[in-house]
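Q: Hi! First time doing this. I have a protein sequence and I read that you can turn it into a structure. Is that right? Here it is:
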Amino acid sequence: MADPALTPDLLLRAYAMGLFPMAETASSTQLHWIDPTRRGIFPLDSFHISRSLRRHLLTADYTITVNKDFAGVMAGCAARPETWINAEIHALYTALHQRGQAHSLEVWQDGHLSGGVYGVQIGGAFCGESMFSNRTNASKTALAWLMHRLRAGGFTLFDTQFLTPHLASLGAVEIPREAYRKRLARAMTATAAFAPAGYYPSPSVVASSTSGIDPSGSTQPKTHTS
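A: Yes, that's right. Below is the predicted 3D structure, encoded as structure tokens:
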């Protein structure tokens, strides 16, 4: 059985040390603390938007929301043959979400949740946990909008935990554990907002932005963000 002493507060303390939990399988009753020797991160000024992704961001019929269906995003992330998201993970991150310390970004198409990403916020650090996609480009769309939102909200670190070929193709990199811990310590002293006041970027602003924020782009978009 999972350790009953593991609480949301202890989970946040672990994140502050650079640790995160994973289960072996969805049915596992134990969690393991992970502390990679090399850490995946997304430099906030280097998200790569390809021509095809830019075209999709501008022309596809989709809607972006935040924190509207955290449970649905977690379920989507867990709906795969092999997953580290067990019942304990569900309960812990749901509790963090209810406290405003874990967030989700959702992509909706034809009235259905087609993709999304969720993670934990500590100061100016966003620790991405997982993402999923049920439609072509849905996860890339989620990441593009998330990256823009993090920059607009004053985040200084986007932790991806591991580096996958998919994330590397979008601009993610690996750094040594000690370098990550230094960046994390600095980020934890920053103040950031996942839902910045007056933040309503248009798809064209998100599609054309790989660094910085254009305040003039804060117009009501074709897709609605909330």
